[in-house]
C-alpha cells in the first residue's frame, strides 16, 4: 500500500514495508514534546519521505516542516512543480500518520502546494564574497 497503491507508481513487490520507518514505541512511553517530534521527524518521517516523495511527486519537490499558528501544532509542507492529486495527498497523509505516534496525530497538519523554489542570484554579489583572501 505504498507508492504503487493507486496504480501510478512502481509495483508493490519492489517497495519496502513502512515498518522500517516506525519508531520503537517501547523506547518512550509517551512522546509529546517538540523535541520528541523532531526525533520522530529526523529518524522516521523524513527518511520515509526522502525515499518515496520522488516517486509520488516530481523530482523538483520540496519538503518542509514548520510551526503552526496555534501552539504545539506542527505543519508538514510538501510542494511539487505539477501539484499533487487529492487521492495522492490522502495517501501521503495516511502513510505519515501510520509512522507517527498517536500522541502527535492531532497536533500535525499538512499543506500541499504547487510551485518551485528558484535561486535569487546566479552569482555572488560583493556582500556575499569572502572578505578574507587568505
Structural key phrases:
single chain; 134 residues; alpha+beta; three-stranded mixed beta sheet; 3 strands; disordered N terminus
Task: Give the overall silhouette.
Answer: globular
**Gyration radius, in Å:** 18 Å
What is the oligomeric state here? single chain
Helix count, DSSP H or I runs of 4 or more residues: 2
Mean pLDDT: 76
Explain how this protein is built:
This protein is an alpha+beta fold. Helix 1 packs antiparallel against helix 2 (86-99). A three-stranded mixed β-sheet has the order 1-2-3, with no helix packed on it. Helix content is 28%, strand content 15%.
Summed up, what is this model?
This protein is α+β, with helices and mostly antiparallel strands. It has 2 helices and 3 strands. It has a 3-stranded mixed β-sheet with strand order 1-2-3, with no helix packed on it.
What's the layout of helices and strands?
Blueprint: H1 34-56, E1 62-67, E2 74-80, H2 86-99, E3 108-114
Parallel strand pairs: 2-3
Antiparallel strand pairs: 1-2
Helix pairs in contact: 1-2
Amino acid at each position: 500500500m505504498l507508492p504503487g497503491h493507486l496504480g501510478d507508481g512502481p509495483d508493490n513487490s519492489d517497495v519496502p514495508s513502512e515498518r522500517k520507518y516506525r519508531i520503537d514505541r517501547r523506547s518512550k512511553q509517551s512522546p509529546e514534546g517538540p523535541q520528541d517530534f523532531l526525533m520522530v521527524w529526523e529518524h522516521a518521517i523524513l527518511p520515509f519521505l526522502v525515499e518515496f516523495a520522488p516517486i509520488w511527486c516530481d523530482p523538483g519537490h520540496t519538503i518542509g516542516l514548520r510551526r503552526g499558528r496555534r501552539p504545539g501544532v506542527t505543519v508538514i509542507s510538501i510542494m511539487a512543480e505539477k501539484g499533487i492529486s487529492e487521492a495522492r495527498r490522502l495517501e501521503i497523509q495516511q502513510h505519515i500518520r501510520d509512522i507517527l505516534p498517536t500522541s502527535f496525530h492531532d497536533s500535525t497538519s499538512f499543506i500541499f502546494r504547487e510551485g518551485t523554489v528558484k535561486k535569487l542570484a546566479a552569482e555572488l554579489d560583493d556582500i556575499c564574497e569572502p572578505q578574507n583572501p587568505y
